[in-house]
Amino acid sequence: MADDADGPVYYVISDLHIGGDEQLGQVDFLDELLDFLERLEAVNEDAELLINGDAFGLWEFTEIDGLEKFDVLTESYPELFEQLRATGESIPITLLPGNHDSDLAAYDEYVSRLAEYNVDLVQAESLTRRVGDRTIWFEHGHQRDPNNRFEDFGNPYETPMGYFYNTHVTSRAGRLSERGRYNWLKDLQAVTPTERVPHWLLSKYFYREMNPLLRYAVIPFLLLFNISVILAVLAGLDMAGIWTMPVETADAVFARLGLVGEVVHFVLVVNAAVAGVILLVAIPVYFVIRDVGETVDRFGISETDLTVDPDEPYVEAARKVFADRPETAIFCYGHTHRPTVIEVEDRVLVNTGTWLKRLHRRDVVAGILPPVFYPSYQLCVVRIASVSDGVAVEYEQVEKADPGAEEISLVERLLTLGREPDPELPDRSVVTGTRPEYPPDVND
């Protein structure tokens, strides 16, 4: 990290999602979080830690209500709360509620309860901080997401769509996860956007839950399915007298390969027959599906996407904040779990990412096999400080080994060879210039 800060330094994290029913209560990054907080305890600078929403997964507790959720948190993670108390004695810690821990804004008792651990809970949708002669706008970001927006933030009885998804789907996954072969269902909360959930479930079933003998028997057929479709089309052309297949040449090639050639030839023949049947059925089915789709479009049933665009709503929100508050240099948010820096005019939009496991979808190199979802961690801390030429934004990655060796099988690795993800955090960014004139009522 740079050491040229002039004035307060802000360390920002978000989307820890600590807590939840059964397996969701497991915090894979607890040691790393404790080490980070302990490091801040000894920091020798004018600093503040801001937790920008979703510190806790209060939505994911479905069998208890109200302040009882906080009691469970303190009982389950005593070392975390004691470290917060210790760190808070050295530097201020400010917590902004998100959608998953919106209860924090609904009950005033949370303010005093968190104050016992030296955490200042701000029961608001946003807050600002001064950095040099500019300001930073902080918000969690759920208000820009139609599925998680609150019309009356702080109302304990308001439940947006995301609440029901978490209480009925995510929490249920946490309770059932241990029944699987590899305890993977708890990672449902890491699947974003939610439209990917069916593909992820299919992937985990195929590569983890399916009987291994059945999986290894099916893989060769699925790998060669694309070739088989071509062969089925060529066979159809041959039967129609339009084109003649070089059968003798192909047989000679397979014969040179011996037993392997015979196996490949058998698989291709069976696959081609199956592909041919599928093609015959697919033609009328295609026209039916297209007609249904046109009917749905006429009635406007599918005009709204289920998931918020990962960037555009926040770009528009930042533009509005920058226009209303010209002194603002940075719009900082979380919620979407994607660490990002986007230049908006002469300022920047900053996403603080997540400490949860992230899943990266990768299609297989051939065939029609399910995609592979690679797990990784990007435990990132955003550091914002005034420097000589403006306001600097830097990402620090807290080191944690990726769980790939345990959660990605050899088959998955081979099927996505060369397509493994290598996620990187954004580079250092500096907002240059000085503060324009601004109204005197800015909340610092």
Q: Can you lay out the helices and strands and say which pair or pack?
A:
Elements: E1 9-13, H1 30-41, E2 47-52, H2 68-76, H3 78-88, E3 93-96, H4 103-106, H5 109-115, E4 120-121, E5 126-131, E6 134-139, H6 161-176, H7 197-209, H8 212-223, H9 225-239, H10 247-256, H11 258-299, H12 312-324, E7 328-333, E8 340-344, E9 347-351, E10 358-362, E11 372-376, E12 379-387, E13 390-398, H13 404-407, H14 410-415, E14 429-432
Parallel strand pairs: 1-2, 2-3, 3-4, 6-7, 7-9
Antiparallel strand pairs: 1-12, 5-6, 8-9, 10-11, 12-13, 13-14
Keywords:
444 residues, alpha/beta, Purple Acid Phosphatase, chain A, domain 2, 2 domains, 7-stranded mixed sheet, 5-stranded mixed sheet, 14 helices, 14 strands, 39% helix, 17% strand, manganese, metal-binding, UDP-2,3-diacylglucosamine hydrolase activity, cell inner membrane
Polypeptide structure, described:
- By secondary structure, the chain is an alpha/beta fold.
- The chain folds into 2 domains: 9-208 and 306-432, Purple Acid Phosphatase, chain A, domain 2 (4-Layer Sandwich), CATH 3.60.21; 224-299, no CATH class.
- Helix content is 39%, strand content 17%.
- It contains 14 helices and 14 strands.
- It has helices at residues 30-41, 68-76, 78-88, 103-106, 109-115, 161-176, 197-209, 212-223, 225-239, 247-256, 258-299, 312-324, 404-407, 410-415, and strands at 9-13, 47-52, 93-96, 120-121, 126-131, 134-139, 328-333, 340-344, 347-351, 358-362, 372-376, 379-387, 390-398, 429-432.
- The strands form 3 sheets. It has a 7-stranded mixed beta sheet.
- α1 runs parallel beside α3 (78-88).
- It starts with 8 loop residues before the first strand and ends in a 12-residue tail after the last strand.
- Residues 301-306 and 440-444 have low confidence and may be disordered.
